[in-house]
What does this fold into?
Amino acid sequence: MRYVLLVSHGEFAPGLHKAIEMLAGSREDILSTSLKNGMGADEFAVNLREVIKNITAEDEIAVFADIVGGSPLTTTANVLGEAGLLGKTIMVGGMNLPIVLNTVLSKDYAEDLKEHIRSSVIPESREMIQEFQVAVEESEDDI
It folds into this structure.
């Protein structure tokens, strides 16, 4: 199976998980956990181990985190390494709704998950970040 694992500070990962469920339906291949305020890295690691307990060495994992180098991502790398799961894992920092949704909807059709995320998903998500402009007409009353 190919899993999408979301990790973050605060409630970002679980919130994004809920948004993905609204758009793609509830799925067992999407997992999430977060480093809550006042929680240490050790407690986060315990929670993460519980979240990934059903992932096997034959599975692939796309990890998305809020910040490159942040505690959730570095702890996730350590836990996945301890579990022998890094070989089939790609980790991306700076997650947002477009990149995760694109991955969820396309991951099962990609021949090579890591290459698909590198060459298609990341570039496409970059294009989704843009200014939204609304034309505003000034009336004579505004002058």
